[in-house]
Amino acid sequence: MLRSQLPSANALFTFECVARLGSFTDAARELNVTQPAISRSVSALERHLGYELFVRHGRWIRLTPRGEKLYRSSTNAFSSISETLLRLDSRNRNRSTVTLSLSTAMVNYWLLPRLGRFREMYPLTDLQFHLNPGDVTTPPHYCDLSIGLSSPDDAGVHHRAISDEKVLAVCSPDYLSEHGSIANQRRFSGHTFIQFGDYPLNWDRFFETSGLRFPGPERQLAFSDYAAVVQAAVQGHGVALGWNSITACLLLDGSLVQASPHIVRTGRSYDIITHSPAPVRPAVDEVRNWLVEQMNTDQESLKQQLGII
């Protein structure tokens, strides 16, 4: 029956890849074909079905309501097939794969520094990552776990708070030596402030909450990916807002230091986010408990070594 409903099985694979990556170009790169071939395959699928799966605005695309439904069912089906094949493969019968949805900054600066320890503890568990340039809100259905900030608008997902959200002004040690603290407003004009896109917690709000005057930066850098914000601060290009749960390793190893003693506490939390209240596989439960343990250890170390409470 399914065979008669689709022009080809490859069309469904192509659609799922475009929907997952949000880009015809990125899908072409992943599938090792040309971008026009991807466009033709998706268009043929839409003609066969009799309705559009994507709304197209130049290079920008988004799923239609019907496209969203087809994406959810197809990605869940592919994930189930992949999991079954792994279980059937005798060479991998003892291995498990856990898929995490995280921001690129959290992977680069929080998870990768401790990945070796994870592999030592769980040698039969492989990790796969779905990366986001900013906050993770509602993770894709094919992801087992994600770490993101709490949101009252999230529906259909389950949260477990693991760390309060704290935001600090951070910079490299050399930058602090040259420019001084941003709390010293007599030397304020020489600073470069690194911005994270149009994120709600910006420098204006940080200064207002800290009780400081912010006349506006003379120089600034702006990035749409928080990983680039952190890297720019590490390299001494300016002062950035540092989220405690992402920059913990860099603060503890001295790559970053506080550019001000002020800390903004937002009232939100970093949460482990899942689509079900209890993990369905033992490996997912092990990874979740490891993430919680690592986050708790970081926050205790920040408190004991740097007095960040």
State the main characteristics.
309 residues, alpha/beta, Arc Repressor Mutant, subunit A, D-Maltodextrin-Binding Protein, domain 2, two-stranded antiparallel sheet, 12 helices, 10 strands, 24% strand
Brief summary of the model shown:
The protein is an alpha/beta fold and 309 residues long. The protein contains twelve helices and ten strands.
Strands of the widest sheet, in order across it, are: 4-3-5-10-6-9
Beta strand count: 10
Amount of beta strand: 15-25%
Overall pLDDT: 85
Estimate the global geometry from the Cα principal axes. Answer: globular
| Level-2 CATH architecture of the largest domain | 3-Layer(aba) Sandwich
Task: Note down, in words, how this protein is organized.
With 309 residues, the chain is α/β, with parallel strands linked by helices. The chain has 3 domains: 2-77, Winged helix-like DNA-binding domain superfamily/Winged helix DNA-binding domain (Arc Repressor Mutant, subunit A), CATH 1.10.10.10; 95-163 and 269-301, Periplasmic binding protein-like II (D-Maltodextrin-Binding Protein, domain 2, 3-Layer(aba) Sandwich), CATH 3.40.190; 165-267, Periplasmic binding protein-like II (D-Maltodextrin-Binding Protein, domain 2). Helix content is 44%, strand content 24%. It has helices spanning 2-5, 9-21, 24-31, 35-49, 65-88, 104-111, 115-121, 173-179, 203-210, 226-234, 244-252, 282-306; strands at residues 54-57, 60-63, 96-103, 125-132, 145-149, 158-171, 192-196, 219-223, 240-243, 257-274. The strands form 3 sheets. A 6-stranded mixed beta sheet has the order 4-3-5-10-6-9, sandwiched between helices. Strand 7, helix 9 (203-210) and strand 8 (219-223) form a beta-alpha-beta unit. Helix 2 (9-21) crosses helix 4 and helix 6 packs parallel to helix 11 (244-252). The N and C termini lie far apart (60 Å). The model has no long low-confidence stretch (mean pLDDT 85).
